[in-house]
């Protein structure tokens, strides 16, 4: 059983968010702080709001508005809110950029393995990205969850009667994809993405033999 993360594993995601954030920090034109000083403030606001606003474009827009209010010590005007939304039009439209080699690799893997998709975020938003990706037919089932922690993987294994020892979670996020699935007893494949969200970064144990490290998605065909 191969379980695939979606954002930044099957298609680019965080790089789109990073472009919006970069444009937002330029748009802020803060009088005393540069972008390197502003970014940690936004990161802290995002970290604090995960439990209440979750993930995705709606969450980002909320966090951008809150960052503006925090820095300028006032509410965002209707016009400023509209301008912030214009910066994020790519995200709001749910445009999908597949990572190189994904369709062909999934096509071949599906001839010899059971494939699942496990993605977290806003249900409607993630479903729209899945629909636009054209990849849904490769997977026996698709699961959209609010969070990917060890309990999520344990619950999925219980619901689907998975043999965790023969189940592999494939993704780019050390925190959500690798460490959480390993804590639930699964194996994992780490395929790094240079644009992985900073809040998903974590340290991986290089001595953990249950984690396979690959350079690119197409390398899966050499191992499965």
UniProtKB/TrEMBL annotation:
<dbReference type="InterPro" id="IPR023198">
    <property type="entry name" value="PGP-like_dom2"/>
</dbReference>
<protein>
    <submittedName>
        <fullName>Hydrolase</fullName>
    </submittedName>
</protein>
<dbReference type="InterPro" id="IPR051540">
    <property type="entry name" value="S-2-haloacid_dehalogenase"/>
</dbReference>
<dbReference type="InterPro" id="IPR023214">
    <property type="entry name" value="HAD_sf"/>
</dbReference>
<keyword id="KW-0378">Hydrolase</keyword>
<dbReference type="GO" id="GO:0016787">
    <property type="term" value="F:hydrolase activity"/>
</dbReference>
<dbReference type="Pfam" id="PF00702">
    <property type="entry name" value="Hydrolase"/>
</dbReference>
<dbReference type="InterPro" id="IPR036412">
    <property type="entry name" value="HAD-like_sf"/>
</dbReference>
């Amino acid at each position: 059983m191969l379980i695939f993360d979606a954002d930044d594993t099957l298609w680019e995601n965080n790089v789109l968010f990073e472009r919006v954030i970069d444009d937002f920090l330029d748009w802020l034109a803060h009088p005393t702080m540069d972008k390197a000083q502003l970014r940690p403030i936004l990161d802290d606001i995002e970290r604090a709001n995960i439990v209440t606003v979750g993930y995705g474009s709606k969450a980002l827009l909320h966090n951008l508005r809150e960052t503006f209010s925090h820095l300028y010590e006032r509410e965002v005007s209707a016009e400023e809110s509209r301008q912030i939304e214009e910066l994020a039009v790519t995200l709001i439209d749910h445009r999908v950029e597949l990572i190189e080699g994904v369709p062909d690799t999934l096509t071949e893997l599906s001839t010899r393995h059971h494939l699942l998709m496990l993605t977290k975020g806003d249900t409607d938003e993630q479903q729209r990205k899945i629909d636009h990706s054209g990849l849904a037919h490769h997977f026996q089932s698709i699961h959209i969850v609010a969070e990917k922690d060890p309990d999520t993987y344990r619950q999925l294994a219980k619901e689907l009667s998975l043999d965790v020892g023969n189940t592999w979670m494939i993704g780019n996020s050390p925190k959500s994809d690798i460490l959480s699935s390993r804590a639930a007893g699964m194996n994992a494949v780490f395929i790094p993405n240079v644009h992985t969200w900073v809040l998903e970064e974590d340290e991986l144990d290089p001595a953990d033999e249950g984690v396979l490290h690959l350079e690119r998605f197409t390398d899966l065909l050499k191992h499965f």
